[in-house]
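Subject: design request, 181 residues
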């Protein structure tokens, strides 16, 4: 494995990590929407405090992080050409595994971390939401958004673990061609 290949793997793993962590930013967007909805329903709550900049900022932040993560993941060759010197394409290093195996390991680890970090809060908030619904108590839109976001995070974590081999093959094809297959 050449040194440039190691850079490629590391950059792609960073992009994947950013994609997984950008889900938290999605919950911020949902929270901003929920606050806007509550303010629109009860004008006295806001005291003339404009919520639109927070909504726009959360959407722009989410969009920029996702765009950067996709750039790191899908256009890794462009970054590697910029970062590596000509000798990095010739200098070889030996690793215990090839790129596909490293991608699989990274996907499994990121998926497991995502599930383990999210599952306890998801269970507690889902239980609380179900309890409120069963007792006919009004529920909070932010709590429901958290439950939905946590469910998406758990689903993506499980998909990363279950389909790590398939995703790593796809990432390998993207790496070789420089474009999405």
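Subject: RE: design request

Done. Sequence follows.
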């Amino acid at each position: 494995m050449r040194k440039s290949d190691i850079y490629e793997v590391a950059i792609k793993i960073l992009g994947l990590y950013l994609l997984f962590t950008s889900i938290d930013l999605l919950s911020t967007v949902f929270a901003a929407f929920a606050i806007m909805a509550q303010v629109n329903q009860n004008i006295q709550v806001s005291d003339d405090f404009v919520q639109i900049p927070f909504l726009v900022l959360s959407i722009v932040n989410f969009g920029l992080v996702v765009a950067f993560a996709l750039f790191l993941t899908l256009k890794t060759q462009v970054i590697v050409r910029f970062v590596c010197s000509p000798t990095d394409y010739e200098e070889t290093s030996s690793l215990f595994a090839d790129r596909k195996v490293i991608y699989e390991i990274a996907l499994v680890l990121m998926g497991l971390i995502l599930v383990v970090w999210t599952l306890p809060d998801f269970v507690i908030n889902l239980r609380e939401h179900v309890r409120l619904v069963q007792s006919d108590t009004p529920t909070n839109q932010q709590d429901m958004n958290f439950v939905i976001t946590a469910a998406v995070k758990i689903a993506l974590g499980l998909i990363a673990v279950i389909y790590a081999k398939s995703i790593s093959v796809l990432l390998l094809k993207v790496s070789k061609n420089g474009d999405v297959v």
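The chain has a mean pLDDT of 80.
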